[in-house]
Design brief:
The protein has 153 residues and is of the alpha+beta class. The chain has a domain at 23-120. The chain is 36% helix and 25% strand. The protein is flat, with a radius of gyration of 29 Å. It starts with a helix and ends with a helix. 8% of the residues are buried.
Length: 153
């Protein structure tokens, strides 16, 4: 009798300490099943309304061009024992839709986890305004104007 309790105890301990979930817990943010849904949108036949009905509102709209819509899907799950329970990224999909001025789909780009790593970035650099330099320049310009203002009178 005591032997049976010990066996049951070890069996329960084994079940509790191991990952006994049948289904994997998924945390999806953005549009679910984006990879399958984007295939129903056709270039030069689908429009903005079709995209809204199928995918909903875009996750982001282009900053300089409002005809560019961006949809994002990100799925994470809990890692296995070797990952010590850290979250693992399963899907990281991005869909970029480009519409013309009439709202007709002109271009459709789909990026998954592997193809995002293959993107090439431009080597060109944007020249920004340094706020410290801008402040110093404005301050010295103001001082110079005050100095020369007295000489002109």
């Amino acid at each position: 009798m005591k032997k049976h309790f010990i066996i049951i105890f070890y069996f329960l301990l084994l079940i509790i300490t191991t990952d006994c979930q049948r289904k994997q817990v998924l945390n999806t943010h953005g549009i679910a099943y984006l990879e399958n849904k984007h295939q129903t949108l056709n270039i030069k036949t689908s429009n903005k309304n079709d995209a809204r009905v199928l995918l909903g509102n875009p996750s982001s709209v282009g900053v300089f061009d409002e005809t560019v819509w961006i949809y994002i899907e990100r799925t994470r799950t809990r890692g296995k024992l070797l990952k010590l329970g850290q979250n693992v990224l399963l899907k990281n999909n991005v869909l970029v839709l480009k519409f013309d001025k009439y709202g007709i789909l002109q271009k459709k780009d789909f990026y998954d986890r592997k193809s995002i790593n293959d993107l090439e970035f431009s080597e060109n650099k944007t020249i920004g305004i340094d706020k410290k330099q801008d402040f110093i320049f404005n301050f010295l310009s103001s001082v110079r104007q005050k100095m020369f203002r007295g000489k002109k009178k």
